């Protein structure tokens, strides 16, 4: 790329000091007909352009306003003012594109704070705000760190299918995919819908997980990971649910549960360290915003740590590893449980843990990320390895402060006979999963993996509170705009 | 990751020579009850395990066969035999998983060549073959190189939506996405399907391109790229079409057509160089396979270059940049056209170029990759910038030997009034694309981008001929298995 970004100019300005350079960007503010804050999206920081209005056509100057896009040629000098090391003395200014004055006052483009809800409806414009610029640059860094971690560790990226023929995992309600004309759906002789005539020759859905296909790839390539969209047709209008979200699912042949926990811990710490190392300016901004937000909350609900502090603490400590059985003991004996503070009181071993219990363990009891393992088999999926106690499976959940479960995974059941029994017990169709069972037939191996919801991790790292604010174009009930 | 992969052992064996190590893998072959070729997917190369059968239980030895999975502890020594630098003298062998002898002779697991068609139906097992191991390791490398290139050049990864509300671009037939019970579709008072009651409150489809959303992101973040699945509901049973495939779409604010061509050329060369640098063993294997395949063809149809040679040549030469108008001149004056050799003869300026014309230009006339630009506006999409001649648009296609178009892109129409006129002419609904038009309202800027089909590039790099063989789980008409 031959063009210099504003990030490059600001970080490497010593190389261009007292030279003329060309920069491009959008006007964030234009103060006193003299100081333009120019931003090109490469960084949260603006480049100050100094305009001596005597040197410019008055008509040109009058057209420059917030959101105008400019090409500026000028000399780089050390800044006289506070707040920036460097500024540009403009010699030539070209307005690049249309900016219609009659619409100039449209609220969204004013240099003031907008509600996150308003910006969500203007998804195409929120990219120009400081906040969403920071969020989506961090999201990029998280994504790149994920690819880098796996590549360094000899994992291969596998694209599992988006359109699938079966709801085998039962992970949630699925969207149908069809090429039928809904006004004229073909029927067979019995009067049933004739899916054999649909595009794929059968009933198809959007995937809820790439895990099962990922496992089959790991059975040949050893270490694989997926990174792709997954879907849930659940009518959940909450700050934690999206109908379309991105999942990362590594799967490793020859790994057992402990290896899997080690991998999850190394992985999360790598990604968070990467963001700390590479997104300083954006994190500083988000850290300040987070602190501001805490102030407006009642004292009891405020976070104990600042955003950056929280990220540093996650890296500093070893995650606490606790069996489900131990966790139930702790919860049963807790003041909170005894005094009836939990909405769902814990009564006995076997209970499914709620978010309130997970957060109690992480935020109050251990005060660090917690990995729970060996869950009762009844509350976990069919593909998890049955432990020798015949009561628990080799499942693991990583719990994070403020967010609860961030990773869920397990060692997989590698024994064909045990897997078949589990599938029968849990009413999973063997015939639909013939190919999955085949991987246990021909040189089955112990293997393990987990799933991470990308948006959950980005929420954690950015300190945002609504999951719709960390994905560029959120898909939720009654909303598929853009 | 604490476990050593076979790749690590083979590449770094000097560190572990005469030490005991532990390795894991699947048996590729077991010769003379003595030599096991062990593979763990990390590399195409096998590790030789030497078994002195006198030291092992005969029953254990008898269970080891092709596809068995093993854990082996043994001493690393320099190999006595040809073909490998190093081997392991086994001290302990553990069979890790079930391998059912009664099914052992299932054709697919025999150590022989299988047809690609058979393997496609056994997608879960083809990962264990040399060929598909190589293909999917290369696919990983291509993907990682793509992310690395964009990250280095300050692009941000943007996830554009998979489920969308509109077929605005008109790039192809779309799959419907619905949560309706197809046996009981709600109707409104007029008797029409009441999409307001569907999950998203409107008719939705699977995306055909993330470009328009990508443009809106670039209008704030400057440089972005997408990397995600796209869909076409076209009933094309060919070696070049998939119903579900992965696209990469960069978009850059302030770039014009020439910048865009430069970016495409730098990008392709970076990715191909990365694969040459990082996939030597797999490429050597694919190169040999490619050469074998050529031998079976009639001499006229054989490729002029070997696979690796072809990749090196793409990097060595500057791509030839030719306007559409020049290309038409060349084609009109070609012997091929005059003698009626083209299935679609070129008669005049304005003709849409077919694959045969593209390949003539690349393979016969210029003998190097070609970038065609400035196409007639009638044969290109509505969002491309109208040139001053009022006849052509600032479109560009990158054409590669053997494959034709590998990249298609353009400078975008940044002028609101021109864009609106174009949309009206081409019957694109303004109201559906209000948000797209908005980006031309508030600080519109020149910008440009392109699209690359990942599978096309992997086809080119691996020398495979059927696009179904370069994606792990192909989706095609009447096929959504796995």
UniProtKB/TrEMBL annotation, chains A, B:
Stored Gene3D superfamilies: Bira Bifunctional Protein, Domain 2, Nucleic acid-binding proteins
Biological processes, Gene Ontology terms: asparaginyl-tRNA aminoacylation
Domain (Aminoacyl-transfer RNA synthetases class-II family profile) ranges: 136-472
EC number: 6.1.1.22
Summary of subunit composition and partner proteins: Homodimer.
NCBIfam families: asnS (TIGR00457), PRK03932.1 (NF003037)
Subcellular location: Cytoplasm
UniProt-listed InterPro entries: Aa-tRNA-synt_II, aa-tRNA-synth_II, aa-tRNA-synth_II/BPL/LPL, Asn-tRNA-ligase, Asp/Asn-tRNA-synth_IIb, NA-bd_OB-fold, NA-bd_OB_tRNA
Organism: Chryseobacterium scophthalmum
Superkingdom classification of source: Bacteria
Entry similarity comment: Belongs to the class-II aminoacyl-tRNA synthetase family.
Example of a GO MF term: ATP binding
UniProt name for this protein: Asparagine--tRNA ligase
Catalyzed reactions per annotation: tRNA(Asn) + L-asparagine + ATP = L-asparaginyl-tRNA(Asn) + AMP + diphosphate + H(+)
Top EC class of this enzyme: ligase
GO CC term (a single one): cytoplasm
Keywords, ordered alphabetically: Aminoacyl-tRNA synthetase, ATP-binding, Cytoplasm, Ligase, Nucleotide-binding, Protein biosynthesis
